[in-house]
Amino acid sequence: MNQLFSNRILLKTDPQHFGELRESQTILNQPSLLRARMEEDGYLFFRGLIDRAEALEAREEILLKFAIIGELDATRPINDAIHSRSEAIEKVNLRAFTQSVRDGVAYRRIVDHSCVLKLYEDLLEGPVRSYDFRWPRFVRPGEGCGIHCDGPYMNRGTDRVFSSWIPLGDVAKHEGALMLLEKADGHDAMLRSYFAKDADRDRIEWLSTNPVALQEKFGARWLSADFYAGDVLCFTMRTVHAALDNMSPVGKCRLSSDSRYQRIDEPFDERWNGSRPETHGYGKVFFPGLGQWKNRNFKDEWKPVDERGRLLLNEEDN
Ligand SMILES: O=C(O)CCC(=O)C(=O)O
């Protein structure tokens, strides 16, 4: 196996410390088994839940947009997603750009795919909807995502929410796949005060910046997989997760989506829902990467922009 890093720390990949995600396609459409396994593992992983061609269509739609703003090497096929290292990004209206990526038709079809909605209807026993905000991610070589649970970021409305992580293209582990901490008795109790927090009101940062130290503390393995376009990983608001760093030897960017789902008849979190979601504040746009600030003011993922939507990377934290 390639060496695997997360948060720039080399992971232990022996069987005591690292494993493969359990696949659940054999229990699809069996609601009570799905609910029991989600309760037991804190996640459900499906190979090929979505038609591969549909996932690749969304990939192409998004990569075309990243090519237009100069983020992709123009000498290579767009679908290879090779990073350009240009500085054109600083001249772009990122507010408009990120909205156009989020609102793409092929991308929205993936987030609201009937197979994905059906799964959450089975889990939540009623009609469901996705959050109005969506999180498409373009992860450059060297980048990843900090360790966290989604609860503090998502559950102002209800805590009966699930996340989907959907690779838009094939994503091998060393190319920046998502990883989850295997669930074990006692974890929820250890995280009780973290789950009670509201990411914005309590201004939280990452749960930890050291995946090896965290797994020692929890006595648990990190789990991941080599993902293929069409696979879907679903998990709870209490599932500890992070990304493996993108160590692509050819400079390939990782493209994926995360989205959230809840029942339509439960209150929703105004940060991510409504015609103009609050998000983490109007002066910021969802644009992961380009540095590491330990997520102070959400800056690893949310970038300050000026009134014309242009990056203000050097803005002081307060
Ligand atoms: O894709 C990533 O790097 C992180 C995704 C994530 O944190 C999530 O799906 O909640």
Could you give a short description of this structure?
The protein has nine helices and 15 strands.
What is the number of helices? 9
**What string gives the helices and strands in order?**
EEEHEHHHHEEEHEEHHHEEEEEE
Describe the global form. Answer: globular
Number of DSSP E strands: 15
Structural class, by secondary structure, is alpha+beta
Mean pLDDT: 95
The CATH first-level class comes to Mainly Beta
Percent helix, as a range, is: 10-25%
How large is the radius of gyration? Answer: 18 Å
**Overall tally of structural domains:** 1
Give the biggest beta sheet: 6 strands, antiparallel
Please tag this protein with its features.
9 helices; alpha+beta; Jelly Rolls; 19% strand; six-stranded antiparallel sheet; 15 strands; binds 2-oxoglutaric acid; 318 residues
